[in-house]
């Protein structure tokens, strides 16, 4: 199997992620993820307090929820980003800076790999191998990413689903049974 364009893209994505994380440092990467997560939690619990103000302004409840969530999320993210930048700069400028950047590189490798695994899982679900171009199906990295995507699939709720299906086998059987029951049971409203 020769190296294909897909293999080069895989190497490029992983290296780009690793170099970016090395430049930023492990502490900044982890603190950024923490800032995004905390901002989302604060927005989730805080949007009801602003929802009524946005409803009066926007007129639609769903838009009000989205607007209140977005405003709280962005304000919290700006505040946390400011704090995490200061803390990460302190770590990078300290004696631990080299270790921080080295760990950042390793973190970036794993992040790049995770991004690719999720992308391949989505591609397999959306397109599948039958419609994939040869430069993807013949790539040396594709079987490895497929294997990791299958393992990742088992971690999600209901994780033993086929990649190409939205239903489990049990749900299919229940759906077929419901159709048969509907077909067998007579409609009593029409009889009277």
Automatic annotation (TrEMBL):
Pfam family, one: Colicin_V
Signal peptide: none
Record has rRNA-binding as a keyword: no
UniProt keyword annotation of Transmembrane present: yes
Membrane spanning residue stretches: 6-23, 30-50, 62-83, 103-126
Membrane-protein topology: Multi-pass membrane protein
GO biological process, one term: toxin biosynthetic process
Principal cellular location given in the protein's record: membrane
Source species, domain of life: Bacteria
Subcellular location: Membrane
This protein's UniProt keywords: Membrane, Transmembrane, Transmembrane helix
InterPro entries linked: Colicin-V_CvpA (IPR003825), CvpA-like (IPR052719)
Protein name as it appears in the record: Membrane protein required for colicin V production
